[in-house]
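Document type: protein sequence-to-structure record

Subject area: structural biology

Format: plain text, a pair of labelled lines:
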Amino acid sequence: MNFNSLESDWPRSPRVLLVDDDPVNLLLTAMALRERGFDVTEVTSAETALSRLTEIRPDVIALDALMPGMDGFTACRHIRMRSGFESLPVLMLTGLDDEGSITKAYEVGATDFFVKSNQWSLLEGRLRYLLRSARVRQQLERSQARLARAQTLARMGSFEWYPGDRGLRMSPEGLAVLGLPDEPLLSLREVMRSLAPEDRLQLRALLRDEMAQLDVIHTDFTVQLSDGRSVDLQVEAEPEFSPMGQFLGYSGVIQDVTDRRSAESQIRHLANYDDLTGLPNRRQLMWRSERALEQARQSGHGMAVLAINLDRFKLINESLGHSSGDELLMEVSERMRL
């Protein structure tokens, strides 16, 4: 991740909400930050800062820890409770060697602390670091949201399975694929219980064989979910190893491929059978004829092809229309199946 490019992509001067009850320190700090390219809003109390928070929408808050009335710790706790400001960078301004305030600042949700001084370059560096970190986190959250959305649309989820105490961890999208409630940690046994008995035996045998050789798992199977739906699932997973080569577990993806399998089956049917009558088409005729000839040669038997023609079919199409001709073909095909 290129931090410099992140900072250069910032669309405007970063907005800083500066909160300090000391008017002299507030003035000097604001002037120094403005000289360094920040858009500073100054307030002298935590109450004012909270009341104007939504109006200002700062990119970062520099908050004095000790103030009369509401102190910075209480204000920071209130900020974290507000929707949309849970991850807003908050820099707590503390006194020199005030270890208690530093510890308390982190406890109430401050992102970082800064010891008050006139070393404005250090303060600028700390603020820009917080801004870069916030930008990286925002991009990561957006990427995770896009990935989750893509997985939901694809009816796909991820999972990690480590034998022993660590159990099976599935993404919410993976749990949705299996029709399971959103649980942070499941056991493989719990997942197995959600499958039909025959599917359970099939999957257990597959896992046993693949794990014995530590192979990549790539398989499809059909399961009956708790709501009665039958779905086709595709599982792909790879084994994970420690730096010392010790087997740790598997990580992979699970996807509902029911619609895809149905579409593939329909495409295969359309490629080999007539759409109107449902009878094998010319492609199927050639394929079956070749197989029959090969079997005849191997067994020393003969084979025959019976050709059936519909007399005056062209006349029906021309006099009664193509729909009547289609009805005739469908009726003939039904009788041939009897």
Summary: The first helix runs from residue 3 to 8. The chain is about 50% helix and 20% strand.
